[in-house]
Design goal:
By secondary structure, the chain is of the alpha/beta class. The protein contains nine helices and eight strands. Pfam families: Methyltransf_25.
Length: 239
């Protein structure tokens, strides 16, 4: 097993690939006024957790999940196969066509960059369309060292004002935002902890042990500062 295969094994078969809850999705739909026969893309949909919430909340919509990793796309297809208005496509989220009334992107836009990704997606939005995305954020006040350590591999992280500046640089305006702290992270990490324990019981090799240790360390860092580690869920439209 290669280090990449080990990483993918640790992250396979869990409900979510990042922090969030169904309530975050429903809040975004309500604030943006998304309902009825709309077209929605879940960009970087992972195993389909938020895609399922979108599809359940929007039974008349056309829902498209886009995921680059084959095993996650397959997990999403299996999860959503009973819903005829959902289609999962294995492709790069950078190249969306649309037109979409909403592009939802939970914890994945940073792969493209906030400004760069929003610029690329502008032409994929229908008139009046919106983007909802979650992005790592530093909370107000002094930043504890453990938070800096947690985000060490994402040096582009800023406070909320910094995120807003990147949004405006892409030609968008903020409609609203909310913080994802606590519950959303627990929804991500609790199943992962159980998955780590199950994999450790299977006599893993050295590469998988290293990946398990890295994931366990990440969870331990969050558990040490759950009120200080956050995503900002941003609702934006072209200005």
């Amino acid at each position: 097993m290669t280090p990449r295969e080990a990483f993918l094994t640790v992250h396979a078969g869990i409900p979510r690939q990042g922090p969030g809850t169904p309530e975050d999705v429903l809040w975004a739909l309500e604030r943006l006024g998304i309902s009825g026969e709309v077209s929605v893309c879940d960009a970087g949909c992972g195993p389909g957790a938020d895609c399922l919430t979108l599809a359940t909340a929007l039974p008349e919509a056309r829902i498209e999940g886009v995921e680059a990793l084959p095993h996650l796309a397959e997990e999403a297809r299996a999860r959503l196969s009973h819903l005829p208005h959902v289609r999962i496509r294995q492709k790069d989220m950078e190249a969306l066509s649309g037109p979409y009334d909403l592009i939802w992107c939970a914890g994945a836009l940073y792969f493209l960059g906030v400004t760069e990704g929003l610029r690329r997606w502008c032409d994929a939005l229908a008139p009046g369309g919106a983007v909802a995305f979650s992005e790592p954020v530093l909370l107000p006040g002094e930043v504890p060292q453990i938070v800096r350590d947690f985000w060490a591999e994402y040096p582009a992280i800023t406070d909320l004002d910094g995120i807003v500046a990147r949004i405006e640089a892409a030609g968008y305006a903020v409609v609203d935002h909310r913080l994802i702290v606590g519950a959303g992270w627990e929804a991500y990490y609790t199943p992962m902890k159980a998955h780590i324990a199950a994999l450790r019981a299977q006599d893993p090799g050295p590469d998988l042990i290293a990946a398990l240790d890295a994931a366990a360390h990440e969870i331990a860092q969050w558990e040490a500062a759950p009120d200080h580690i956050a995503y900002a869920l941003m609702l934006v439209r072209p200005a």
